[in-house]
Write a structure and sequence with these properties.
mainly alpha, AhpD-like, 5 helices
C-alpha cells in the first residue's frame, strides 16, 4: 500500500476546492463565512474547535477533513498528545472505522508538523 503524501493531498484538494468555489461563488462565500465564525475563539479557543472538527472528520470518514483540520489544529498549537486524545474520543464514538481514520489523522498531523 502506498504511503499518502498529505501535503500533496492538501495541495490537490485546495486546487479542486478553488475550482468549485469559482463555479459556485455565493455558496462558497457563505460556507467560508460559516467556517470563520465557527472556528473564531469564543467560549472555546480555536485549537479546541479544530480538535472537535478533526474528531468529526474521523467519525465521518472524510479524508479532506482529516487533512485540513489536522493541519489547522497544528497551526493553533495542538500537540501530538492532544491529537491522540482527540482520536481516542472519536474511536469511542465511532468504533473500528474511526480507529482506521484515527490512524490516518495521526499520520496527517505527523506529516504537517
Amino acid at each position: 500500500m502506498a504511503e499518502t503524501n498529505w501535503n500533496s493531498f492538501i495541495d490537490q484538494t485546495n486546487e479542486r476546492m478553488a475550482a468549485l468555489r469559482k463555479a459556485m461563488p455565493e455558496q462558497a462565500k457563505g460556507l467560508g463565512q460559516l467556517a470563520q465564525a465557527a472556528i473564531a475563539p469564543g467560549a472555546l479557543d480555536s485549537k479546541t474547535k479544530e480538535l472537535i472538527a478533526l474528531a468529526i472528520g474521523i467519525t465521518a470518514r472524510c479524508d479532506g477533513c482529516l487533512a485540513f483540520h489536522a493541519k489547522a489544529a497544528h497551526k493553533y498549537g495542538a500537540t501530538r498528545e492532544e491529537i491522540v486524545e482527540t482520536i481516542g474520543v472519536a474511536v469511542y464514538m465511532g468504533g473500528g472505522p474511526s480507529m482506521i481514520y484515527g490512524a490516518e489523522a495521526l499520520d496527517v498531523f505527523d506529516a504537517v508538523s
